[in-house]
Inverse folding.
């Protein structure tokens, strides 16, 4: 389940695969999905954006052509 690629890693997910917990690999800060969404919208994570998936704001990595560094 958790992957450590890039600045942020997923630490928790639901049984359906929705990412619910994250950690900033540089600072060690743990964040919930709503906290990470807020940080992205505040401009603190420029390599990430927020998608609306089934009505839920969801963090996503910005596309860069590399397969190994997506949130997951």
């Amino acid at each position: 389940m958790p992957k450590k690629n890039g600045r942020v890693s997923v630490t928790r997910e639901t049984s359906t695969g929705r990412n619910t917990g994250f950690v900033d690999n540089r600072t060690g800060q743990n964040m919930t999905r709503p906290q990470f969404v807020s940080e992205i919208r505040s401009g603190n994570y420029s390599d990430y954006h927020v998608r609306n998936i089934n009505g839920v704001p969801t963090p996503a990595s910005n596309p860069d052509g590399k397969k190994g560094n997506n949130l997951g």
Notes: Residues 23 and 38 are 14 Å apart (CA to CA). The beta strands are 8-13, 19-24, 30-32, 48-53, 56-61. The chain has a mean pLDDT of 88. The first strand starts at residue 8 and ends at 13.
